[in-house]
Amino acid sequence: MIIAEQKSIDEIIGSLEGFKSAVIAACGTCVTVCMSGGEKEAIRLADALEIEAKARGRCIKTSVTTPTRQCDMEFLDENEEALDSAECILSLGCGAGVQFLAEKFPDKVVLPGLNTEFIGVNRDIGYWTEMCQGCGNCMLAKTGGVCPVARCSKSNFNGPCGGSSSGTCEIDPDTDCAWQLIYDRMKRLGRLDELLEINEIRDWRTSRDGGPRSVVREDVR
Amino acid sequence: MNVLIIGQNEINEELANYLAKQGYSSVIIADADAIKSFSGEAGNFKVKTGSGEVEVALAIVTEPHRKPVPDMGGGMPSPLFDAAAMERIRASKTKSPVVVLLDYFNESPPASTARALEEALALASNKVNVAFVFRFMRTAASGCEEMYLKARRAGVTFIKYEKLAVSYDKGTGSFDVEISDGVHDVDLNTQFIATDSGHGVPDKFARLAKKLRLKADEAGFVNEDRYFLASALTGRKGVYYLNPDNCESWLQETLEFIGSMACADVNGDTSDKNHATVDGDKCAFCYTCYRACPHGAMAPDEENRVMQNMESACEGCGACAAVCPGNAIAMSGDEFSAASAPGKSGKTKIFCCENSGEIALREILPGLGELAAKIDCETVSCGGRIGFEQMSGALRSYGKVIALVCMDDACRHFTGNQSACKQATRLSAVLEKAGVSNKRAYCIKTSHAMPNAARDEILEVLNDNC
After folding, report:
1. Domain hosting residue A18, numbered range
2. Is B339's Cβ below 8 Å from some Cβ in A?
3. Which of B213, B215, B288 to mutate to test the interface with A (most CBs of A within 10 A)?
4. Is residue A203 part of a domain?
5. B325 at interface of A, judged by CB pairs closer than 8 A
6. Do A51 and A150 lie in a common domain?
7. Local structure of residue B233 (DSSP, 8 states)
């Protein structure tokens, strides 16, 4: 799931400078689940914006609408009337949602209300951690199901490095050393010998280094 | 009716025999780890184990929830909750002081505090010299304050410490206890240390509690720190905890209590009770409510891929509605009246929980005189029900808003009171950020037993003209 966090009220209201009305577009999928951009947060943000705007001597009329997913055009079409009912759209979707809304409404300003953080998991209510960077060439089979790209601070392919201490990473004692986790897991699985194999230098073109990516599946088109 | 008994406990057979006499049949699963899943509600639980599925109406957990007492360098202290061990100390007529030790970094749990005070008092009344050694102690639980005074009068020495070192001398069979509060040092030599296992439950118990979806406190206990759960209730209707610490003296009484509660849990009329309703179109099936519900009342509807509320298990606290990120859950019963209406300007809106909040407010209001006219009150099922949007909504027309909720140990829904405080804090932060006075949103924790403290806080809010 995509994990995101709401931007500060300051930044949001700054971006709304000059607008008298805005539709807050929540999104009913990932950002609902990670409690940053669902309908509940949209309603709370509307209240907070009203308080902040009033204090600044401004008046911004807000309304809330919630497409099931901002990353599917059909859901945006279903919400077209509500989305088009104000001067601008403040999207509480991930970066994909903001951009898709901008494509849907080419003549309208679409603003981001969230910072999209990472692909991660839900560990507890209000606690998410990063697990995947979408590098386009998954090597989890070699590392016991623990990703060195996303979870090692250096994305080392052969580790651990010298900064690993008592199972934690040198950047922060609360961050697990991914290579310690990999070692522990491979040991538990009885596959430690596989770690002796050196991982070759990685071709990062499958990741961001190859520029914007797209996936085309002719078999399903 | 089938009753499931879960846990490694010699009391299981006796319990099964008792239940048979009452007309129940028992299913005993001694190994708690054998349970794969536990779903449903009182009267109709489905239990999956490695060997199949069984349906039961009720479940009684007998798995011990206390870690064994720690080894102190070769010597084993006496478990505070072991009546036989305590009797041995009392009978020993030892000349050296007996150390009753409460080694908690935070406030000691009420049950441990009460037990420790009880034992210290019993020993001192037996003319035993007692040193009550503690790092943090809480005496707020019912009866504790009185026992504390009695223990002091009986000659128990209370020693608060910051540093503690215990070593055991095998030759003399005694413990050497070095205590320091940072200023004074005290050394004690003792034959007996009585202590409990410290904060925390055995891993197996924690796994079981999680599988049964029993709300646990930070230490993992499912009913220890909550007096409203008495001695045998858990947060989930139809699931009871037979505390092994109490088995000896309370068994009969506890079983009768479970019997009476079971009738209400299985057959109780729930028709006019507050409960949650999930809007399937909005539900993201994210399981947030499932995790948040303190009563195990949310269940996934796998076929329709939405969460559903089990009405008879639901206690109407609204923790699910408050936390639901999709705004998909509505509560029957609670209606927030946040819309503007004349005559609210300059007044204060108090949302009070129906437990401590309402009871305290009823006590407080008559004594407020003219100031009472400046207050509008609304009772909701629990502090957990009071969201940011309800409080900010109230501020559209009211001057100030207060959430009046239970003290930590008293919230019948475990953390609803804390949730209300977090929402008030969040709203205050928004107000402060906006440069509006942040002194408009408050959360006050109160106890029905001490409404005066809350009255003073409310008066302070009413009289603050910031």
Report:
1. 2-118
2. no
3. B288
4. no
5. yes
6. no
7. B
Q: Are B243 and B231 in contact (CB under 8 A)?
A: yes
Q: Catalogue all structural domains in chain B, each as residue range(s) with its CATH number.
A: 2-64+202-267 (3.50.50.60), 78-195 (3.50.50.60), 276-331 (3.30.70.20), 348-463 (3.40.50)
Q: How far is A186 from chain B (nearest CA, A)?
A: 24
pLDDT digits (tens, 9 = 90+) for B203-234: 999 999 999 999 998 788 898 767 778 778 99
Q: Answer yes or no: do A78 and A7 share one domain.
A: yes
Is B357 in contact with B364 (CB distance < 8 Å)?
no
Residue in the block written with tokens 């804090």: B425
The interface predicted TM-score (ipTM) is 0.87
Q: Which residues does chain A have within 8 Å of residue B433's beta carbon, measured at their own beta carbons? A: 9-10, 52
* Closest Cα in chain A, distance from residue B285 (Å): 8
Judge if A65 and A155 occupy the same domain. Answer: no
Pull the structure tokens for residue B385: 């029900």
pTM: 0.86
What span, in angstroms and rounded, lies between the C-alpha atoms of B112 and B86?
A: 14
- Sheet of B239-241: strand order equals B25-29, B2-6, B58-61, B239-241
Q: Which residues of B touch A52 (CB under 8 A)?
A: 430, 433-434
CA dist list (Å): B188 to A3, B16, B90, B175, B323? 55, 47, 19, 8, 51
